[in-house]
Amino acid sequence: MNRHILIVDDDPKIAQLIEIYLTNEGFAVSKANDGLEALSKMDEAHVDLVILDIMMPGMDGLSVCLKIRESRTTPILMISAKDGDMDKITGLMTGADDYLVKPFNPLELIARVKSLLRRSGYTSLAQPGQPSGPAQEEHIIRIQSLEINKQTHSVQFDGRAIKLTPIEFGILYLLASHTGRVFSSEDIFEMIWKEKYYESNNSVTVHMSRLREKLVKEMDGEKLIHTVWGVGYKIEL
Question: Which three-class secondary structure state does DSSP give residue 147?
Fold first, then answer.
């Protein structure tokens, strides 16, 4: 089945251009003109990724992103004409996985979409042909009462699910797979985003902040990820 992309933009020309490029790449595409319509479409059918404009009448993209994150970890690529660092940080802090500034090269947008989908191989059930039951243990990392399952992209603490976005899960799994090792922001970006790190990139800092906030809240205040000042981040057992 083709991956389903939802485009949310009140500019029909931009939405149509994005749709043309996505359909040429084999994606199934739906469009919404505003935030409320977008949320309605997500309730009606499964969506694999959302391309979300910030500046929309009524319910803006930031509000839509927050609403989606209340119940879903669907990857969100936010697009906006606002190109300041604080605009990008605000978008990422509301729950977006990536941020692209208008006007953008459509080929770059397609590359970002494919990159996000590669990292979002989450599912609530094992896929046909994959091991289940005891054989699944090789995909699981346990740190005290925390359980990280790579196969299902799920995280639990004392049996309670912790909802993480694909990028947050990727960062956690990377650190948990190498306990005691310190990863710099550059290391994390290049291993998770699969792109070359560039100076003044706030993406890792913002996603790390969200991840740590969620873990501390769900783990009853326990601090799992530690900062090694001037070096990077690690999980110390």
Answer: strand
Alpha carbons 109 and 52: distance in angstroms, whole number: 12
Segments of the chain assigned to CATH 3.40.50.2300 = 4-119
Both structure tokens of 29? 């595409």
| Nearest-angstrom CA–CA distance, 63 and 29 | 22
> Residues 146, 183, 110, 12: what is their CA dihedral angle, to the nearest 10 degrees?
70
Q: What amino acid occupies position 204?
A: V
From residue 194, give the alpha-carbon distance in Å to each of 87, 92, 154.
23, 18, 21
Residues of the chain with CATH 1.10.10.10: 135-235
User: What are 115-145's pLDDT values in tens digits?
Assistant: 888 877 633 333 333 433 333 466 889 988 8
Q: What is the pTM of this model?
A: 0.74
Q: What angle do CA 211, 214, 218 make, to 5 degrees?
A: 140
Q: How far is CA 5 from the centre of its chain?
A: 14
130-to-77, 127, 138 alpha-carbon distances in Å = 29, 6, 12
Q: Which CATH class is domain 135-235?
A: mainly alpha
Q: What is the CATH number of domain 4-119?
A: 3.40.50.2300
Phi/psi for 76 (5° steps) reads: -125, 120
- Residue type at 12? P
